[in-house]
């Protein structure tokens, strides 16, 4: 078909060049945004007297019909068209005649595609934010149910100090809460309307850009027409935020994979979120967690790609910027799928509380508290540190936890030990006496749960 921009040219574009240049294969995803943006544009043109009321009504009716027909499947978006803008405009002209030719008055494909991509991105920010909220609800539920589920906390993947599962899960609550805050920031910063910027220098038509922005629920119009069509910061910011979300999901997945191993046996993954081996009947593989971990690199790749694309582009619009879409669409779909599947896996995860508690006891996570006990009984800290080191070595040789030793055994290592040591180094005591906000003690955790519940209730 003839191109909407073809008047300047005296011969057809080479077919290979046309296909290389065309974006319909992927930007058809923007059909709804393109039509909604066109409807707002037409209403503004009529308000300003640039179109008549009759022309406005014809165009709106035609656009509504195209939208309905695309969504019910009676109108197919095909590669006969160069891009989604050409598809909409050509079909509109075919349906309503000359009035449809006035749709593009006062705008360029440059500000049109900038608008479409902003509308799409804005919608997806809300969708992802909603999925993250559901994930946070599940994390908070696990926290509320496991205030007294004792487990080892780790540094360097070595057992360090006793905590609770509620406390451990609370770390991921904070991560995904920050992810939602980043999405909120992106939404607020990007929510300005580029439509009316033209190709790069605005237009001589008396547009009301503030009215167009209002119709499309933007905070206002963008303030520089060159930046309006050249800006893809919001795409970069979104892909950066999505990469961080995936990094958090990947870290969480890695822990679930470790916890699911025979050596840890902290969790059991539901059959619906795991698979078996084709030759080893005993296997139950954490496939969803592994795939989430693996797909993180895919989202990182999208971020690096758009950063590389944008780094050398002069103002204003350049065709390079067409590369902002495919990888962004894929990254968004990947993150939405990963968050949804991870939430489902987490919701059905079973925690082996006794295994966690035994691991904390056998891992000498109460060694620091034993050293504090000696200090409180008059032993200098450096001496106490050495005594507990000998105590741990003795326990390893005897395959016992500290609180499984007899008082007689303890006194052979240090006469400062008394019967009250056993209470001082119990997991419950070690956790409960850590009462500062952010620590795993029950009073501190209850306050955090209250804050988290209040946060989620706000939306």
Structural summary, described in words:
There is one protein chain. The protein has helices at 15-21, 24-27, 31-47, 53-72, 84-96, 109-145, 165-190, 209-215, 225-230, 233-259, 287-310, 326-347, 353-362, 367-376, 381-398, 407-413, 421-424, 427-432, 442-457, and strands spanning 150-155, 158-164, 267-268, 350-351. It has 459 residues and is mainly alpha-helical. The strands form 2 sheets. A two-stranded antiparallel sheet has the order 1-2. A hairpin with a 2-residue loop joins β1 and β2. α4 (53-72) packs across α5. The model has no long low-confidence stretch (mean pLDDT 93).
**Which residue ranges are poorly predicted, with pLDDT under 50 across at least 5 consecutive positions?**
none
Number of strands: 4
Distance between the termini: 48 Å
How helix-rich are the residues, as a percent range? Answer: 55-70%
Strand content: under 5%
Overall morphology = elongated
Number of helical regions: 19
Name the average pLDDT. Answer: 93
Major sheet summary line: 2 strands, antiparallel
Task: State the oligomer.
Answer: single chain
Strand order, sheet with most strands: 1-2
> What radius of gyration results from the CA coordinates?
31 Å
Structural class: mainly alpha
Could you state the order of secondary-structure elements as H and E? HHHHHHEEHHHHEHHEHHHHHHH
Throw out a few tags for this protein.
elongated, two-stranded antiparallel ribbon, 19 helices, 459 residues, mainly alpha, two-stranded antiparallel sheet
